[in-house]
Design brief:
It is a single chain. The protein folds into three domains: about 1-110, no CATH class; about 110-260, Rossmann fold; about 270-445, 3-Layer(aba) Sandwich (Rossmann fold), CATH 3.40.50.2000. The chain is built from 17 helices and 13 strands. The chain has helices at about 1-30, 45-65, 70-95, 100-105, 110-115, 130-140, 155-160, 195-200, 235-245, 300-310, 330-345, 360-365, 375-385, 420-430, 435-445, 455-465, 470; strands at about 115-120, 145-150, 165-170, 185-190, 205-210, 230-235, 255, 280-285, 315-320, 350-355, 370-375, 390, 410-415. The protein has a seven-stranded parallel β-sheet. Strands 10-9-8-11-12-13 form a six-stranded parallel β-sheet, with helices on both faces. Helix 13 (about 375-385) links the parallel strand 11 and strand 12. Helix 1 packs parallel to helix 3 (about 70-95), helix 6 crosses helix 16 (about 455-465) and helix 10 (about 300-310) packs parallel to helix 11. The longest helix is centred in the first third of the chain and has 28 residues, at about 70-95.
């Protein structure tokens, strides 16, 4: 009897693990956020799986009745294990083979088939599809049907956990673009990912629009790759001039000034409570892969925090790292140094924190009185608030390069060695002599005039949907 009980426990354990594997198969071979498009066992396959389990349970009972040896029972267990693994493997093979068919079918459903715009996103190095999240509400406000396309499976899994946007996964870029619904007219992009060019090349009949995920003076905001797109959405004239300054020749009629739609969040200050003690927030950019994109001051986070928290009169301090900084090999060291400084000042009663991941930059902008940052899109976004900005200059910054960084005109400049950080912070907290200049630069950076945030973007999208010919000037 004991042998039979052990055998049944083995059967139950193997079956449980096999079903976990099969559920994993559903996740790994998903093609969209629509659960109806997931791989599912056919009725015949389900019956076969059940029949195998019943058969071996019966054989186990029979062997117990006949008092078969433990060796016979062990052989039965191994046979069941082998057969169950085979069934699970065949199920995964079938799921992988059906991906294209399931993608075709889901794109014919009303949720996707009526789309006039799609947002294509490929960024293998990003853990989450943050660029899509950044534009989601703005695209939704346009009012035209749309969905997102991702080219990396881990981004689809992120959306399946929070399916606020209809999303499909193109596992094969040679095939996926041909399956787009017939009403799609516009493809939006928020970066210059390598796979973008495959979609552009395969669907020349569509209007391809580069929006980028932020406006800044960093190289991604004037990349020569942007010439591949039919239209380029920029926040203001500063964005257009930036390409010209760096010798990137894009015809004037390809640009559309759309402002920065996301700044509408900054207008809602209902949840912001006035504080007697000013909040200085530090939002460094991440340390790039290459020297020419190395603008980060993250390695000096402890010095910056210490200087700010030693300020007289006292201020509060908040540190929000860039999401990519968590992948930096030196991140834990930087974090440890920051925590040590914050802990020391907290013991003296200072208000200091490292922002939780669920606090968005825009939430922090609304609460902050001053920000300290690097050359990044943070400068442009916070500029909309009209509040002071301190920018830590890159270590290799040269005066001759100033023309390449028009946003600096609106900022208090902090030398890379931080030797004037205290001086600049006191100026910003005091009379703020840069206030008038900030307003002028703000008008240059945000060119949507008196329109509400997002309105110029909405009009540009609807115009693009209306027809590529009139937009391109062809």
């Amino acid at each position: 009897m004991m042998t039979f009980l052990v055998f049944m426990l083995i059967l139950a354990g193997v079956e449980m693990l096999a079903r976990v594997y099969e559920r994993k198969t559903v996740t790994l071979t998903a093609v969209s956020t629509a659960r109806a498009s997931d791989h599912a066992l056919t009725r015949v396959e389900a019956y076969i799986r059940l029949a195998i389990l019943i058969l071996f349970a019966g054989l186990g009972a029979l062997s117990a009745f006949l008092e078969a040896s433990a060796l016979i029972v062990a052989i039965l267990a191994l046979l069941f294990l082998s057969l169950r693994i085979l069934v699970a493997k065949l199920d995964r093979t079938a799921a992988q083979a059906s991906c294209l068919f399931r993608l075709q079918q889901v794109l014919k459903t009303p949720e996707f088939n009526s789309a006039q715009m799609v947002f294509f996103f490929s960024a293998p190095d990003l853990k989450t599809p943050s660029h899509v999240y950044a534009w989601e509400n703005e695209i939704q406000a346009v009012g035209a049907p749309w969905f997102a396309i991702v080219a990396e499976a881990h981004h689809l899994r992120a959306f399946r956990q929070d399916a606020s946007v209809p999303v499909v996964f193109f596992h094969d870029m040679a095939v996926g673009p041909a399956l787009l619904p017939p009403d799609v007219r516009v493809v939006l992009y928020a970066n210059n990912g390598q796979k973008n060019r495959k979609l552009i090349a395969l669907r020349e009949d569509l209007t391809h629009v580069q929006m980028l995920h932020g406006d800044s003076d960093k190289p991604p905001s004037y990349s020569p790759l942007t010439k591949n797109y039919d239209l380029v959405f920029v926040a203001g004239q500063m964005g257009i001039d930036r390409y010209k300054t760096h010798g990137v020749d894009i015809p004037e009629n390809r640009f559309r000034i759309v402002g920065r739609p996301q700044v509408r969040e900054l207008l809602d200050t209902t949840e912001v409570r006035p504080q007697e003690i000013a909040l200085v927030s530090y939002l460094p950019t991440w340390r790039g892969f290459y020297e020419d994109t190395q603008y980060s001051s993250l390695d000096r986070v402890d010095q910056i925090a210490d200087t700010v928290l030693s300020c007289k009169p006292p201020v509060r301090f908040s540190f929000k790292p860039h999401p990519m900084s968590y992948k930096d090999p030196d991140w834990l060291g930087f974090l440890s140094k920051a925590q040590a400084v914050l802990k020391r000042h907290a013991a003296r009663g200072a208000g200091a924190e490292i922002c939780p991941n669920d606090i968005s930059p825009f939430d922090l902008y609304k609460q902050s009185d001053i920000i300290i940052c690097d050359i990044s899109s943070v400068m442009i976004d916070f500029l909309y608030t009209g509040k002071p900005i301190l920018v830590v200059l890159p270590e290799r910054f040269k005066e001759s390069e100033r023309v390449n960084f028009p946003s600096l005109t609106a900022c208090y400049e902090v030398r890379a060695d931080l030797s004037n950080l205290e001086e600049q912070l006191n100026a910003a907290l005091g009379e703020d002599p840069m206030a008038a200049t900030r307003q002028k630069v703000r008008a240059y950076a945000f060119g949507d005039g008196n329109l509400p945030p997002g309105e110029a973007f909405k009009r540009a999208c609807l115009d693009a949907i209306a027809g590529r010919t009139e937009l391109s000037g062809a």
